[in-house]
Amino acid sequence: MMTNSLFLSVVVFVSLVSVDSFATASQDPLKLILGSPNFGSTWKGGISLAPGPSSADDASDYLLLAAHRTKRPDILRAFKPYLGGWNITNNHYWASVGFTGAPGFILAAIWLLSFGSLLVVYHCFKWRVCVKAKGSSFDSRRICFILLILFTCVAAIGCILLSVGQDKFHTEAMHTLKYVVNQSDYTVEILHNVTQYLSLAKTINVTAISIPSNVMDEIDKLNVNLNTAAVTLEEKTTDNAAKIKRVFYAVRSALITVATVMLILSFLGLLLSVLRHQHVVHIFVVSGWILVAVTFVLCGVFLILNNAISDTCVAMKEWVDHPHAETALSSILPCVDQQTTNQTLAQSKVVINSIVTVVNTFVYAVANTNPSPGQDHYYNQSGPPMPPLCIPFDANMVDRQCSPWELSIENASSVWENYICEVTESGICTTVGRITPAAFGQLVAAVNESYALEHYTPPLLSFQDCNFVRETFMSITSDYCQPLERNLRIVNAGLGLISVGVLLCLVLWIFYANRPQREEVFADPHPQKKDGSFGNGLDNHHSDANTKISVECV
Known about the structure:
Layout: H1 2-17, H2 31-34, E1 43-44, E2 47-48, E3 73-74, E4 80-81, H3 91-99, H4 102-124, E5 130-134, H5 138-201, E6 205-206, E7 209-210, H6 213-274, H7 278-321, H8 343-367, H9 412-416, H10 437-456, H11 460-464, H12 467-479, H13 481-513, E8 519-523, E9 547-553
Antiparallel strand pairs: 1-2, 3-4, 5-9, 6-7, 8-9
Helix pairs in contact: 1-5, 1-6, 1-7, 4-7, 5-6, 5-10, 5-13, 6-7, 6-8, 6-13, 7-12, 7-13, 8-10
Signal peptide: 1-21
InterPro entries: DDB_G0292058-like
Keywords: Membrane, Signal, Transmembrane, Transmembrane helix
């Protein structure tokens, strides 16, 4: 569970933009955003199963992502090689990734059984190890003490590495999550912007000329779906980000706790063994025995996590090169045919054309006419005729080339300024001009609305053909993957040093804390011969050659 949640930080963008996040029981709001002609029966539960458009560089068959990295023994298939490539929806993939953590789990099991058995023998059967040495045992104790300090330092270095590595990993993981959330927020912002500008289009009115009512009805329907999609995406993003953050902080707390406890355990164990607090040291030995097993298990978990992230980074990089190939990501990402008509884009084009029609109707029917006083639309307009606004799309909603006399949406306002006349309080022109300041303001509002729709709606196509997802994956693989993998290796190195250092310290604690009461035995290597001439019966010639043997039992 922890591995899946952490791994989700790298691929959370997949879930944030997946169609399933927006699907409802009655209607999928994204059908009006991403287009529906290609969906049909190829959609199952809101997930696209249809391949995108083929191109010269796209694979015609199913593309296995990170195939060379994921060829590992599959625990669920009696350790047969897994050949399915990167696929987070496949249990066999996770089983093969889980196998990469086997060294840590096996070491933990071996350590628990072997050292546990030794502790049982030591305490229950009063097993002792005797060390015999000629002369003083000072040298052996000194070597033991030096080794104890050395292994304590190794454990301390491991704790430092673990602390530094987890801090960097946490920081980098949070940066990755923040980037993904920002990308999702950008998507929501685009949807909201399109909705706002579509709503604003309904208010366009140039001297009582407005958008047709049927277009307004279509805008209302589209806005409902856009708002639903934006709100759902925003809620999903917030919820997923909060869950992932909780997992990140839980992992961080666990690693900090392990580093702190192991550091304290190492130094207190050293101190207590030096002071010969035998019973307390035995408690520390049992605690260390369990904690070493925990660190081995954590090593295995982070090996799995490291391999899962590396697999994902390779898979994303390969998908970037083949975004429309049929892959494991095809069932997650909402990539559809690049040529599929996007209803949102099509509707925005209809609205833009309708606004331009409103503007041009005013230009031709009002501004460029010369009515007599008392007739409709008379305000004493005069002078050269105003150029009309270019209709950007033809009847088939395909881009059209503007005529030389038509104005583009970008420069229409600046050109029309030259046609403004000065007016009286009643709105009658007193100078040469074709439009009043009030009419000019309405025209500018209409042009700005068209410009906004023309520039905010096309980015939706990047969701349609997966360019947006591709750019996000490119950024993740280039900026975030390597730091995450490097910091995970530091965490694993720290856990490894802690395990080895504390493991060896445990053995030395037992020997050094239980420095025995020495039994000094004086043995004469030569048999004594009684000599009647000496009343004491001792051989004085050999008394100085006695050898002192020191026996220490632990």
